[in-house]
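Thread: sanity check for a docking pose with zinc ion

Original post by kr_44:
Hi all, I'm comparing my docking run against an independent structure prediction. Below are the sequence and the ligand SMILES. Could someone generate the full complex and paste the structure tokens? I mainly care about where the ligand ends up relative to the chain.
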Amino acid sequence: MSVGRRARVAALALAVVGIALAGIAWTFLATYAAAPVDPAWAVPAAQGEIPPGSVTVRHTGTATLVFSDGETTWMTDGWFSRPGPLALTFSRIAPDTAAIERGLERNGVDRLAAVFPVHSHYDHAMDAPEVARRTGAQLLGSESTANIGRGWGLPEARIRVVGNREPIALGRFTLTPIESRHFQFPDLAIRERALGDPEIRAPLVPPVSAFDYKVGKAYVLHVAHPRGTFLVVGSAGYVEGGLEGFSADVVFLGTGGLGSQTPAYRESYWRETIGRAHPTRVIPIHWDSLTGPIEGPFTGPVRAAAFLAKGTDQTLAFLKEKQAAHPELIFQTLPRYDEVVLF
Ligand SMILES: [Zn+2]
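Reply from moderator J.T.:
Ran it for you. Here is the predicted complex with zinc ion included:
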């Protein structure tokens, strides 16, 4: 075979292998599965005038929540880009500025006091610097989150690295970030890449691999307001006794990855979150697709989660069991974007 012909055959073989790999990735990640929440938990959007002084919440999906009391508005994560399974697997990712603009608009947000990614993985922190840039918000979080902000060119004056358990005042809201843990990925290789070396030590300039968004610190946010208190648990991890003394009326409970843990882990997670905070309401979050669209209902390809979870999602069964055991506890899921009165 001539050298030229050999090169052509090699190129063709590479292309075939590439297409086959992309096909396998697509099959794995881009198929639909039922959402792990009960449709009966859905609460409608606020109807008519919202009473002045109310604390409201809006949910975009994953752990992106906007809180407002009419005077001060702030948000967790601010994640609107949804890189697809192929980009996540084979290429590098960057904030989608059109998606961010649309996401802020759909949430009715133009000014924010702060945006606080609950940890620094791409599905929490990737878009936060652009959200801060557009809204005048302070970017709050760990040193890793700060480096995501620096890599995006956000001025240092707009970045604040928070201290563990040091309260932050935002108008009448008082946020206390509590260092906690991320859930453990059951797949060892993924666990090592996602959690093994946790810090982003230098400004992170996208586009980069999804795994370059290292976890940083995983926070639980305790939020106190004269109207009520709540916890945002952004990842289904816990530290034994970490939430001792942090009671809350409402817990936003991260359930992503929970269904892949052992029954004993799920029990411990419940005890260390709901069992510590003693809320009257629990609002599961981070149960929707990472790659689905951010318009319309919370459906989309969720097989990626099932793949990470090794196909054994016990989330809904676990939550239903807890609901049956705690009839006094109200389970709710939020509509997308629409304002709901929290207190
Ligand atoms: Zn994460």
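Residues 119, 121, 182, 215, 235 surround zinc ion (CB under 6 Å). Hope that helps with the comparison, let us know if your pose agrees.
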